[in-house]
Amino acid sequence: MYAVIKTGGKQYKVAAGEKIKVEQIAADVGQEIVIDQVLAVGNGAELKVGTPLVAGASVKATVVAHGKHDKVRIFKLRRRKHYKKQQGHRQAYTELQISAVNA
């Protein structure tokens, strides 16, 4: 059984036992959270799609770790104008262990 969830403005396809990295969630390591924004639930060939959410569906997950992704380099250059700008960014994430998908 799998589900499509929405968190942090993005959508993720998850199943029980998987680990995923999502936008940072304000929760402690080891804490169990419930994600109730479920857009679709599938089981084999059967698929239940919500409008926009599936009523009564939820996903249980445990917070494994917090961290930062690799650095993304931003480099801007205007040729022949003496303009050069460098910047970097590291996006924070929360790693979740999916424990159950409830339809």
Physical arrangement of strands within the biggest beta sheet: 2-1-5-6
**Multimer state:** single chain
| Largest sheet report | 4 strands, antiparallel
How many individual β-strands? 10
User: What is the terminal separation in angstroms?
Assistant: 9 Å
> Which class best fits the helix and strand makeup?
mainly beta
List the total number of helices.
0
- Whole-number total of structural domains: 1
What is the string of helix and strand elements? EEEEEEEEEE
Rg over alpha carbons: 18 Å
Low-confidence stretches: none
The coarse silhouette is elongated
Q: Name the helicity range.
A: under 10%
Sheet-strand content, in percent, reads over 45%
Average pLDDT rating: 96
Keywords: Ribonucleoprotein, Ribosomal protein, RNA-binding, rRNA-binding
GO biological process, one term: translation
Family: Belongs to the bacterial ribosomal protein bL21 family.
Protein name: Large ribosomal subunit protein bL21
Summarize the structure.
With 103 residues, the protein is an all-beta fold. Helices cover 0% and strands 65% of the residues.
Structure commentary:
It comes from Caldimonas thermodepolymerans. Keywords: Ribonucleoprotein, Ribosomal protein, RNA-binding, rRNA-binding. Part of the 50S ribosomal subunit. Contacts protein L20. There is one protein chain. The protein is mostly beta strands and 103 residues long. It has one domain. The chain is 0% helix and 65% strand. The chain has no helices and 10 strands. The chain has strands at residues 2-7, 10-15, 19-23, 32-35, 38-43, 46-49, 58-68, 72-78, 83-89, 92-102. The chain has a 4-stranded antiparallel β-sheet with strand order 2-1-5-6, with no helix packed on it. A 4-stranded antiparallel β-sheet has the order 3-10-7-4, with no helix packed on it. The chain has a two-stranded antiparallel sheet with strand order 8-9. A hairpin with a 2-residue loop joins β5 (38-43) and β6 (46-49). The termini are close together.
